[in-house]
Amino acid sequence: MTDPLLASDPRQLGGIRLLGRLGAGGMGQVYLGRTRGGRLVAVKTVHEHLADDPHYRERFRREAAAARAVTGAHTAPVLDADPDSPVPWLATAFLPGVTLSRAVAAGGALRPDAVRALGAALTEALTAIHAAGLVHRDLKPSNVLVTADGPRVIDFGIARAVDGQGLTEAGAIIGTPGYLAPELIAGDGPPATAAADVFALGAVLAFAATGRTPFGTGTVAILLFRTVHEEPELSGVTRSSGLRELVERCLGKDPEARPTVRTVLRALRDPRPPLWWREEPVRSLVLADEPVPEPEDAPPPTVRKAVREPVAGPVRPWRGRAVARRGLLLAGGGGLAAFLAYAVLRPTPDGGGSGASWDPVVRTGAAAGGARWSLEPRSGEVDALLVAGASVLVHGTDAAGSSSGVVEARAGADGAPLWRRKADGTASGWWGTSDGLLLAPDLGLPAVALASGTVRVKAPQLAPTLGWFTATGGLLVESYGETSSEWRTRATDPVGGAVRWTTPPGPATVAPAVLGDALLLAPVPAASTRLRCVGAKDGAERWTYPLAAGDGGALGVCALPDGFAVLTTTGRVHLVGADGRAVRPVQTLADVALPAGSTALGQSAGRLLVAAGNRLYGFPASDVRDRWSRATLGLDASWPKRLGGARAPVTGGGLLLHWRDAGTLEAVAPATGRVRWSAPVGGGVAQVPPVVAGPVVYAAAGSGCTALRLTDGRALRSWPLPDRVSELAADGAGWYARIGKASIRAYDKPSGA
Fold first, then answer.
1. Coil, strand, or helix at residue 389?
2. 3.40.50.1980, 3.40.630.30, 2.130.10.10, 3.30.1060.10: which CATH number matches 507-640?
């Protein structure tokens, strides 16, 4: 899954044209790129503060050269690098696939024979890495990519050289707690050796065999202590064929006593290993990550120096098919209290349709639960869907690969075109509605009247990076970054377009919590140690609240009836009253791993909720120790993005709904964690959150959608679809799906709903 390039991102590095963002690592940003010859590559860049160190550049040069010498069937080859570039970078082959973490979350622990096959593949990869004079040093499930050709080890391109002259600063610990060898934890011990990778391999195999890390979860300090002083928890790792004994030896405290990579390979090698990655649900996950074929003449991404005011034009709609009746009422898994809003997941790359423009929808007669209409671009694509009032909003392009886009409003009853606006070319999934307006600053449409398509607020003349936006107190509030350390928050009247207030420059913040007419601005990790509360009407600072030096910044914030909750990267929970005073002493979520990028904080029925990796937690704000925990498929599949990019859980009828695994939807009581019902959903692998519309839950898995009764999970009807569902929405009349980038389909609700 790729995100669009930001205004501050480079557009080209060397001869590689950058297409989007793949993610971020400890060393820098990772981009998807295409070489002049048309090959897709993953381009890893280096943070500015590291690039400014000449010693770092020299080590980077040496290790990049060593990494290019790594060859092997189970590695991602390093293709090119430029340590002397103003932004040092390294390019590896782009391998569509999913991480081992996600594969296990979707399908559960691997069978013993699959664990052995995985171990053999990883050991072959480590053999190739060590032969080039490198130690990986950070082997973990998220650095194992499961592809259509099997598992591959990634992120060895910026590994530590065997001679000890690695990319680390003195005293720094490089690695991931729970997979980091005990001899490396002291920080002043010997340099990393191949034995450290063997330790990490044992931890990865234990995770694959059980679905959990061998040293449990918790804060960094807890995990490091357990690694050094306690034995791993290996119940669930089978003793058959000596697998348990081998993993125990790999996880030995003494590096000299661990088996060598060659010994591990001999123990695991099988002349006929199972092709476990070709079995469901992993197969569907891997296929869903295949990249979009890009036209050879597609224009390069353009830097958004200035954003024009969108011009209303005649409705020149996409082509489609339709069916009949009804207006639409917005519904979703939990709403925003101050306004009507519904937002959607960032679209994933899929195949596109054909044709030259968006043509009128095609209607078909609809029985209860039948298809109502569909919209299919000819040569363009649809990449975002939003249901609001009696309208359905669709974002897309008139031609595949186009750098500019359009937003069309369609009548929900029959798909008839209402209005069309020019927009930016890539949907972020942040848009939403408030008080009769479409709010989409990320698309160059800050505020547009839903009824007429009239622009109410112009996009800024200079468009720096957009951090987040929200609506409160009748104002559109946005966060913009001009540099990495200078961010401003601005409030605009969404009707007249007047800027009401702008804050002085400061650190970047996470999406805010809104309580009445107050916004809590919490710094992103490492940006600051101070929370700020500002008034929505005037932007005046009302109070500040200090975070401790060990808090590490905010992972998430949420509003409570009488204040705010803040979750930090170190697992500390701050409860702050509406007046800025601490409500109670700071609490710590012990034994809970909070992976960056896959952790969010929310609340329901007076309980705080935390989605963290593959676990879901609930607890009262007054006592984090009184918590429940459930396995979950992960943040992307269960917590949709709402207006402005903030994540929120799906709730309805007093229940919390989430995907327990790739094909099971679960309804949980937020107060106790008790499972009220659990329902299998066929069609493939779940990748989009469920949607609640009145008494019905709509859940899409793969190329199928099922309507379930909210109270007990009873299946009301299932629909087969032509391809994978990339986005789902619903209302009182029925439900709507985006099928890849090929079409939008509307269906009536099932009979009896």
1. coil
2. 2.130.10.10
